[in-house]
Amino acid sequence: MGAIPFSRFCKNPSKVFGEVVDRDKPVTVTCADGKDVIIIPATEFESWKETAHLLRSPKNAKRLRESVAEIEAEIARRKR
């Protein structure tokens, strides 16, 4: 769906909500005043909150970066 004007959203909000959830993709609702809104599935929002929580602590963020680097190094090693 991508982006839709506010007027289209107002005509059938439940359809837009259903498409957002069914496709698991965000939709931008554009407004004439430029104050656009993004609608995302609740599961995606919860994932964002969890990621923000995990990265809030510098110590935890460092451990996560190190873990990702280890996984990426292992994947690269296996591809050789």
TrEMBL record:
What is the scientific name of the source organism? Candidatus Muproteobacteria bacterium RBG_16_64_10
This protein's name: Antitoxin
Q: Which family does it belong to?
A: Belongs to the phD/YefM antitoxin family.
Superkingdom assignment: Bacteria
Please describe what this protein does.
Answer: Antitoxin component of a type II toxin-antitoxin (TA) system.
Task: List, alphabetically, the InterPro entries matched.
Answer: Antitoxin_Phd/YefM, phD/YefM_antitoxin, YefM-like_sf
Q: Which Pfam families match?
A: PhdYeFM_antitox
